Amino acid sequence: MNAARMTIRRSESLGTAHSGDVTLRCHFAFADWQDPRHVHEGSLRAVNLLSLPAGERYRIGPESNVEILTWVERGSLTAEIDDFSKENLKSGDLHLVSAGQGCTSLNWSAEQGATDCLQFWLLPDQNNSEPTQEVRQGFPDTQNGAFRILASGFPEDDPEEGETVADGSPIALQTRARLLRATLPANEGAVYQTTPGRDLYLIVILGHVTIKDAVLFQGDAAAFENCETFTVIAQEKSVLLLTDVPAI
């Protein structure tokens, strides 16, 4: 069995890619920024940070056989994907487009003021499905500091019959992966546990935290391989996003 490994990725080491007039900060190789040391983490193909001035639009496409999750950190966005309905997103909202057999035009626009968001690109378990779009608005914070599931491809994470999306049920993915968020008060922690054959990627959105002897600040990330559990402690109020994906 391979030994568990945690690799720290500092925010200043992220790559810079360009798409039209938009500049992206990239955790993994993307567009015109290529780095053989940072290609993907399991089936997590890309993590991109977008900062859009008011009126700016990020356009991509065509895209196929990828799931793109967009989490709005600050401001508001309008998502326009092919012939799907236009979706208005605000801080804390989550948008999914599963490109499946192909989406021609994918657009995200900052309509009223500057907007910051993160996009997670996931490889689906099966290719060439029908394209879909889904949105969840304003997931409430958990009260115990635990990781809350925002999106999942595991049937057991679905709410029980009769519950509604108003309860914050996760977006349904077409890959056996999860996106989770934790909001931790100062000096409190959260434990996450997964199963063998998974890769984990944690990003500090706000604040700073410790994992064992490592200190991670806002914008830093930690990749976990062959690691089924970890504990994170907030040194100040902190917000974290975590992906749990198949190791490939």
From TrEMBL:
Residue ranges annotated for the Quercetin 2,3-dioxygenase C-terminal cupin domain, each copy included: 169-245
Keyword annotations of the record: Dioxygenase, Oxidoreductase
Superkingdom of origin: Bacteria
Domain Pirin N-terminal: start-end pairs: 19-122
Keyword Ribosomal protein in record: no
GO-annotated molecular function: dioxygenase activity
Keyword Oxidoreductase among UniProt keywords: yes
Membrane-spanning parts: none
InterPro entries: Pirin, Pirin_N_dom, Quercetinase_C, RmlC-like_jellyroll, RmlC_Cupin_sf
Family affiliation: Belongs to the pirin family.
Protein name, per record: Putative quercetin 2,3-dioxygenase
